[in-house]
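Q: Please design a sequence for this.
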């Protein structure tokens, strides 16, 4: 299976979700710190932060991480989280990243996810990586 990278703000929702996945994953730092370097293709798990018009959906550290062409070239898919209260903008960072980086949006989940989300993502990643190995 390929790698996982994720961003989680101070709220920790995405970090809790990734911990429950039980898969090896590396965190993109919240603050200006050295970025982790992927050594193989990876899927990015990213929360959404947007105003009412969709501005600011992708956290600045994620933008900084993907602005490096070497890292971006290894990105194979995106999983996005968000809050359904934002309606059409729910998990919109995933749509933006998938389009900008020309990779699939693999899944959306709300806040820290459910057990169903965990099971679906584990199974989906296994299938995804078996097709992209």
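A: Design:
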């Amino acid at each position: 299976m390929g790698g996982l990278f994720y961003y989680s703000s101070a709220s920790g929702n995405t970090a809790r979700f990734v911990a429950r996945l039980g898969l090896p994953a590396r965190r993109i730092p919240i603050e200006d710190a050295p970025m982790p370097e992927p050594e193989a293709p990876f899927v990015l798990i990213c929360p959404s932060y947007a105003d009412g018009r969709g501005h600011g959906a992708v956290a600045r550290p994620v933008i900084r991480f993907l602005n490096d062409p070497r890292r971006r070239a290894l990105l194979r898919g995106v999983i996005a989280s968000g809050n359904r209260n934002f309606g059409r903008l729910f998990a919109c960072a995933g749509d933006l990243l998938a389009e900008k980086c020309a990779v699939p949006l693999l899944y959306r989940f709300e806040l820290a996810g459910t057990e169903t989300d965990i099971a679906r993502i584990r199974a989906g990643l296994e299938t995804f990586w078996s097709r992209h190995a």
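Q: Thanks. Anything notable?
A: The two ends are 8 Å apart (CA to CA). Residues 115-131 form the longest helix (17 residues).
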